[in-house]
């Protein structure tokens, strides 16, 4: 009982050490669990929301639309739980200018169901539900009416709508009709699109570099009032996928099994079948058109023949009358009246030549008959010409039918292709990677500080330990006094850390996240396993340090422990050997130098602890500086052009004419821009289809005209880069990189994520879905976006040659056409504001699909989530620095109580004692800061290597101000600690402190 009382008394006396260990554990556990818990809560709530709304696992799109046969084939794929055929249509309306929207049919099979936020779901034709973004931008509300106009080529099935022939036929249209929606609309509800969780009322719009929306808004309409038997897409749910977390690799593997099956025989067979359907429909229309034309021509010929017969009868009647009159006259001149009677009774018989001559004479003599004959002859001639023209047109259509209908292509996509999903996942993954790295530093500092504190605590009780051991107490029982002390401090600190880690930090992160994304049903959850392991990790570390301190003391005999520890043997320090310096240092300066360098453990612990805390602060500020400069570096340094304009292929010429006529462009470069994919080629022979692939990245494929390859360097800064260590990269000389016909230039942001370097083989997919293996000639410095530059010649070699992948989908050499330059990179005159306004005005032009101002992108680029996490980490690092300095200062004072008492006896005033002690701590702090500043830069580089986000490369940047802030903050904490330590020095009693320990 006395042993326990003494132990409790000892614990109460060491309350400062207890608080220090508890606080360090609290901060460490909070960092370890807090960021993880915040991301996990966001992941889980989003996954629950996706499951509740039936967000599709797989989406299938087709260049020719999807038919009922396609839907039936998808239902038969093994592993598919549900298939929902969807219809949509792009429309335009006036809202402070021309705006576009996608009319989306609300599925009836429970897939991709919008989440109702206000009002009710639409049920009748003409009713729609809109997103909150539309309500905010338009100022409309529930009950407001809206009139929209369908776009002429808005449907995904526009590839099947060919031009009409001269005969009025449409040779390529199938029997299926494209979707059509009502145009007189009434808003009845406000919904959240599960495919896009961006918060329109927050600041998510600033991350526009990841926006993938092709229209401004989405309107949701019921099936009532929607016509058309052709489907825009098909969405699928995979069996077993809902049981997995959508953000885990197990989910991706489950879905990939189904997508691989679809990409196999189903995709190929249905592409061929769909194209054959279009060919058959075209042929049928040509046959029907020929039959209809023949019927019309036969009717016209019959009419002409009837009119000609009537005309001939009329002429023959006149001929007969004239012939009869002539015969009667001849008879009148005869001798007898009987002849007259006989002549009058019969019509004279004329031969054919005479009759034809009389016809021509009669017609020529009558203007009416002449005009009637000309009209008949002209009608016959026109009819013959129409017959010949129509037959020639139909034969031409028959010959051109196969070439006029393009190859049908399917695009099988999973959730990763959803812009909103991939943006949320990449944001959370990046934050989680930071949460996995920072606790390591906290743990190391906690172990160091615990070792320092507990070693001093054991050393102070040296004689007491000897007494207990001498009385027969086991060494384990004696050591338990300190082990239980450290364990209790860890458990209390860890418990408070769990509260902060599972409540405080997640609540802060989720507030920031909800400013970027809408996540219904978000709630905080406790993870017993992770929380317990978090505390256990620090308990093991601190107890290991305590055990080491106890073993170091208790391995001695009780007699040795009962005697005071012998003072450290005197020794010279290196500075003493430098006589010119040492001789000029004052007495107190020499004492300070000896105290600092003779006690190696104190030096290492103090400098290491301060350096670690300073490094954390620098690392946090480095990430903040890196993110803050991304937009400026990319859009003002790397991109030298001011404007990028993109149009449809059919509007490319009109777009260039429009931009040229405005007179704002000082120089420009026509290019072709396509959205594609870059996949790391497999090992071995470079075949990208082998099992060596290690990742894929969405890219922007930029083809440059052969005659203007040298002009690319004037629009984009071309600098070769090579990967370095610790997040660094070697950047070559500006202008030393040239685009040629031997390979492609890959952006650093994509190359870093996939491990691509110069000389690598990659698989490229162009905008038409055609794949080919390409050589990487160089990696270009690029921070935002994943651009891949290719020359016109190399593009044709990749995607038009027989060596290209998927040759069944690639163009043959005789059918290949010159590239359409559908985009323009331009330098503009005027201020940044005028350039931004000009880009916005261009988007209102019908020939322009997208216009991007680099000035606007540079000013608007933000990464608020990362900034919030960096602020949290810097705050926690500052708290850790304060605790570390407090622990070291108190340990330093407790070790030197007799020394301080001696100084007081020698006549030192309190202020002089303060200066004597604090000067050592300040020097050690400065040494720790000097070591921590470059260490923070290195740690920041390592962390950026872990932040492999889609379309982003973090080029580490640490501004001088950040170094100053980190140094000043650490020194400020050291000064603050002095305010707590000075009263402790004042309370030292010289008499009691100098009493013999024996």
Automatic annotation (TrEMBL):
Keywords annotated in UniProt: Cell membrane, Coiled coil, Membrane, Transmembrane, Transmembrane helix
Signal peptide: none
Domain ABC3 transporter permease C-terminal: 437-548, 872-977
Annotated organism of origin: Bifidobacterium adolescentis
Cellular component terms per the entry's GO annotation: plasma membrane
Name this polypeptide is given: ABC transporter permease
Coarse class of the protein's main subcellular location: membrane
Keyword presence, Aminoacyl-tRNA synthetase: no
InterPro entries: ABC3_permease_C, Membrane_comp_ABC_pdt
Biological classification of the source: Bacteria, Bacillati, Actinomycetota, Actinomycetes, Bifidobacteriales
Residue intervals passing through the bilayer: 437-455, 482-508, 528-551, 603-623, 865-888, 921-943, 963-985
Subcellular location(s) per record: Cell membrane
